[in-house]
Write a structure and sequence with these properties.
- By secondary structure, the chain is mainly alpha-helical.
- Helices cover about 80% and strands about 0% of the residues.
- The protein contains five helices and no strands.
- α1 runs antiparallel to α2.
- It is rod-shaped, with a radius of gyration of 71 Å.
- The chain starts with a helix and ends in a 38-residue tail after the last helix.
Length: about 260
């Protein structure tokens, strides 16, 4: 509103100035040839006075327009002014509250970051302690394995030394055992051949016998066919039983070797 009034006053002053300029210009053009230098100065002076007067009038009108504009501006009632003051105070309080909230959140964030840093450092120390414990335990286990392998090496060396020192005796004993095994199998072969021949003779003898006679004949010749059972008691079961192995036919003991290494 004030800008429009100012423009209106300026336009009015310009309209007032324009006729003066026109009249004075025409008068100066009409009498330029007839007037003297003193008359020209007089007209210039009169023009300046008129211009100054019109400018002062225009400034007065401008001030009046500004004052009128200020007088026309409605003054807010007391309630509205109080409300505006309350709003400004509330805005200041809200601004202060937001600043306090930001400071509080910033402090909380700094505390959380410090706590996270401490937790990370504690976790890293715990991991380092666990790694150190694991390495120590692994080192102990490897030391136990090394000791056990050393005992096994010593045991193998003892066996090697024993075999080197007694290889002739061991070889002779093994040869004797093989000869004994061959003789035993030869004796068993002869016994089996003898029983086979007896069985063939018994089968030929029982060819013309009745079943009862065959049963009685088998029971009478049971020891000859199947051998005497242990304890000297006749074996009355059908089919008989195998005779026990004689002591000389049993397997000879093996050579004594060094004992196994002790466990760590």
């Amino acid at each position: 509103m004030s800008f429009r009034l100012i423009m209106f006053a300026f336009a009015s002053s310009m309209l007032m100035f324009s006729p003066v300029h026109g009249d004075e210009g025409q008068a100066a053009a009409a009498s330029s040839e007839e007037t003297s230098p003193s008359a020209t100065e007089e007209r210039i002076r009169a023009y300046r006075e008129s211009f100054d007067k019109q400018r002062s009038q225009a400034e007065e009108r401008h001030e009046e327009a500004v004052a009128q504009h200020e007088s026309l501006r409605p003054t807010p009632p007391p309630q509205v002014a109080a409300r505006q003051q309350q709003l400004s105070e509330r805005q200041l309080a809200m601004k202060k509250f937001h600043e306090e909230q930001q400071a509080y959140y910033k402090k909380q964030q700094e505390e959380r970051e410090a706590l996270a840093t401490k937790w990370h450092e504690a976790r890293q120390k715990l991991q380092e302690a666990r790694m150190e414990t694991f390495l120590r335990e692994r080192e102990k286990k490897l030391a136990q394995v090394e000791k056990q392998q050393e005992l096994m090496r010593n045991w193998a060396e003892d066996q090697h030394n024993y075999l080197v020192e007694n290889q002739d005796k061991i070889m002779q004993r093994m040869l004797e055992q093989k000869v004994e095994v061959a003789n035993r199998h030869e004796e068993l072969r002869k016994q089996a051949d003898e029983r086979r021949k007896k069985m063939a003779a018994m089968r030929t003898a029982m060819a013309d016998m009745t079943p009862q006679e065959k049963m009685a004949y088998m029971q009478a010749h049971q020891e000859e066919v199947f051998g005497a059972p242990a304890g000297g008691q006749p074996n009355l079961r059908r089919g008989g039983g195998r005779p026990p192995m004689p002591p000389w036919a049993r397997q000879a003991p093996r050579p004594v070797a060094p004992s196994a290494p002790p466990q760590p």
